Prior knowledge:
Helix content: 25-40%
CATH superfamily of the largest domain: Crotonobetainyl-coa:carnitine coa-transferase, domain 1
Largest sheet: 6 strands, parallel
Structural class: alpha/beta
Shape: globular
Amino acid sequence: xxxxxxxxxxxxxxxxxxxxxxxxxxxxxxxxxxxxxxxxxxxxxxxxxxxxxxxxxxxxxxxxxxxxxxxxxxxxxxxxxxxxxxxxxxxxxxxxxxxxxxxxxxxxxxxxxxxxxxxxxxxxxxxxxxxxxxxxxxxxxxxxxxxxxxxxxxxxxxxxxxxxxxxxxxxxxxxxxxxxxxxxxxxxxxxxxxxxxxxxxxxxxxxxxxxxxxxxxxxxxxxxxxxxxxxxxxxxxxxxxxxxxxxxxxxxxxxxxxxxxxxxxxxxxxxxxxxxxxxxxxxxxxxxxxxxxxxxxxxxxxxxxxxxxxxxxxxxxxxxxxxxxxxxxxxxxxxxxxxxxxxxxxxxxxxxxxxxxxxxxxxxxxxxxxxxxxxxxxxxxxxxxxxxxxxxxx
Length: 394
């Protein structure tokens, strides 16, 4: 660790904690990366020669300053910032002993093996808790440690389908392009990683009272059900099964994407005052005065008619015109950016959301940063994702 890395880590909120990250793919590594950003020393354990599966999920791959391709995939880089990397063969007695020795001095262990997968190596919670009673052991699986599905494998795409997300994502079935649609990012994995980070910190806080660690059982399926949020509540309270609405919102109108004269934009009107302000800008005050559209419940009831009227209005001018005019009267609206536009956005850049790191093969690289901003204790964001076995000697 460089002097700069040590200084940043010493000031960060989780400075002094050590995490053993036996996970791979995305959910577990995302949790480990979050803990590393918060200042914990995170040791990523990978299989010798092969490493994390995501190392092979490319292209694209990093290139050296001379333009030569490396084996560092963009996918792997997105979830392993700030970690130290070692290779251990946990199927061997020597590898198992290495893990046990590391566990003695670790606060947290993260793993995402199948249920019971580490027990045969003596690396399950019960075995390691006997070595270190203070260990917080976080298991991430598709369906959890209990229940009839516990032995099934679980991947984000599957869970988006089983967990209901694809039933509410995509265009309506009766329109062109309708049908089940996954989200463009593995959001169930990401959410699970975030819940794991929350759970681990909660267990560490509780440990200050009890002096004991504990086992955290996190399932992608559970997480996907949890983040259905208002859609789940719509069913539980209203007893109506939510359907796909394309870009529309089930409870708010107008709250969707609309075509303009030269493209598309989002109109996200959250209350009646905003609707009235929109109508004034659009020169259509009769809409705001129409009792069918005056309140949000009425607009939801007359969704198709009001959205048809709004669509015709917005197509009369350009996206830039509408964004400028509506922002002046505090009506929520936005462009629909491509990924390059997002990552080159001057506001995002000023907020420090694109960070620069020194990579041992590629020189200076850019990665997306962490959105957490503390007023007093900065995050630790200086260490690039490790090469396979980079820290074996250390």
